[in-house]
Specification:
Radius of gyration: 31 Å
CATH class of the largest domain: Alpha Beta
Structural class: alpha/beta
Helix content: 40-55%
CATH architecture of the largest domain: 3-Layer(aba) Sandwich
Strand content: 5-15%
Number of strands: 15
Strand order of the largest sheet: 4-11-10-9-8-5-6-7
Length: 501
């Protein structure tokens, strides 16, 4: 191709109606012309002024394209001489572009096969429980973020940004910000009877990372871990990719209930939610707590205590943490601010025995390279000034009222036929369904009505043999929407049950 006909060749291929920016099309077409030798090495390219005029586009657009081609090695430019095609194409781009010259679409080619995941990757995706919806009636585990004291938080945030401290804008030291660890130690001791020093606290991004860190440091692939059955799907997913051998242990009214056969094969780890079993809501009895602690001491097991929803109990005070009863240093205590403040904060913590503190702090910095120190500083002051405990008191009252509104709506619709468990604590209750009901079908029918609930069977290791029920989160549902939303859900339940009858 002679330089004199380049303008016509380009004009025929530029498509001003396909949504692609003109400069990107021009850049691509010139690349193709050079690589296919349509523009041979040494050819002088028309000036940016002339090419812009002939194509009817801005000169700056052409100049920008020429500059990019120079940087990529396609052309050379010298003041007073002009722009020339380089003697060789860039090494990283080879092959013929003859067929591509006739294309006017710049969309990437579709692949014919799905990329292959690893075995554990496929297992993780197959069992994923994450929802595309993160709020609304009746999404479990989501707090009412509209009631968060944003003005107070903004004031504290502005204070730190007004004169940013360099030490708060870099990577976090092992364990996290010292000030936050200090105020957390005081709060946990007062509120949950956790016995620890600030140095035993490691700041994480939440429960998932805390459990992942503990599993990595305290177990090896193939080791046995006990989990409650049912249990939180997110933690189960962490364990699925850890290489551990997971054994689901049934729960009863007193919490996790290992059989004699289970006790005969001690695990390396056990993961429990003693303050508020997730998802069924029972509180582990003191006798069961003492049994687990003694068993762990005798068999050198580690207990990971997820202190889920311990702040939200309606009508009674929670039992002290399992960690507070531990005298042998076998309990790893984890918690987060996702439910008490707002999920997007992504701040959690793990409390480890003193002998493990340095190793956990080092591993956290090595694996996750944490930051967010400014956010941690704001949170520390938020707690120290009393805003955290004040917010929890207000939300406990609000959530208690919404819980009762939901229970009243259910009683009005179903009377004594309605049965719920786990309703005296936390942010959700479980609506029991008749035996044999496909609770996943009910959840799907509810979703078609814009109501989000979770099927209880999905939290069990063997969903096909699990009891049927629905998890109903009430925390993030405005007061005046609870009754109509429940009636909509009830319509979906009744319709599905009639179809399955």
């Amino acid at each position: 191709m002679r330089a004199s006909v380049l303008s016509d060749w380009l004009a025929q291929r530029l498509d001003r109606g396909n949504g692609q920016p003109i400069y990107r099309q021009l850049h691509r077409l010139l690349q193709q012309a050079i690589l296919s030798r349509e523009l041979p090495a040494g050819t002088k390219v028309p000036s940016s002024r002339l090419l812009a005029a002939e194509l009817g586009i801005a000169r700056n657009t052409v100049t920008q394209v020429f500059e990019q081609l120079v940087l990529e090695g396609y052309v050379t430019s010298a003041t007073g001489r002009g722009t020339f095609v380089a003697e060789s194409a860039p090494d990283e781009i080879v092959g013929s572009f003859d067929a591509a010259l006739e294309q006017t679409s710049f969309a990437p080619a579709a692949t014919s096969a799905e990329p292959a995941l690893s075995v554990r990757g496929a297992r993780l995706i197959a069992g994923a429980g994450v929802s595309k919806r993160q709020g609304g009636a009746f999404m479990p585990g989501v707090p009412d973020v509209s009631r968060f004291p944003a003005r107070v938080w903004s004031r504290l945030h502005t204070k730190y940004w007004r004169r940013p401290r360099p030490d708060l804008l870099t990577y976090a030291p092992g364990g996290g910000l010292a000030l936050l660890r200090h105020v957390l130690a005081d709060y946990l001791h007062t509120a949950r009877s956790v016995r620890c020093t600030p140095g035993q606290i490691i700041i994480t991004t939440g429960i998932h990372q805390s459990v992942d860190l503990a599993v990595r440091l305290l177990s090896d692939p193939g080791d046995l871990i006990w989990t409650e059955d049912p249990c939180y799907w997110g933690v189960r997913s962490v364990l699925h990719v850890s290489g551990l051998q997971s054994r689901p242990i049934p729960v009863d009214d007193e919490g996790i209930n290992p059989s004699p056969a289970d006790l005969a094969a001690p695990p390396k780890l056990m993961l429990v939610t003693p303050s508020h079993q997730y998802p069924l809501g029972m509180v582990m009895s003191l006798a069961r707590r003492r049994m687990l602690l003694e068993y762990a001491r005798q068999n050198q097991c580690w207990i990971i205590e997820d202190d889920y929803d311990s702040e939200y109990r309606y009508g009674s005070r929670p039992l002290a943490s399992l960690q507070g009863l531990d005298t042998a240093g076998q309990v790893i205590y984890v918690g987060s601010f996702g439910k008490t403040l707002f999920p997007g904060l992504r701040v959690g913590y793990i409390v480890v025995p003193e002998a493990l503190a340095e190793s956990f702090a080092t591993a956290s910095a090595e694996l996750y390279r944490e930051g967010q120190l400014l956010q941690q500083a704001v949170l520390a002051e938020f707690i120290a000034e009393g805003h955290f405990t004040s917010h929890i008191r207000k939300m406990r009252t609000l959530y208690g009222q919404r819980r009762q509104t939901l229970l009243d709506a259910a009683a009005q619709r179903y009377g004594s036929a309605f049965s719920a468990v786990g309703g005296d604590a936390g942010l959700h209750l479980v609506m029991q369904l008749p035996d044999g009901t496909d609770d996943r079908a009910v959840a799907a029918a509810a979703l078609k009505r814009n109501i989000v609930v979770r099927a209880l069977s999905g939290y069990y290791a063997e969903p096909a043999n699990a009891p049927s029920g629905l998890l109903l989160g009430y925390a993030c549902v405005p007061d005046d929407e609870i009754v109509p939303a429940f009636n909509t859900l009830a319509d979906a339940v009744d319709e599905t049950l009639s179809q399955l009858a």
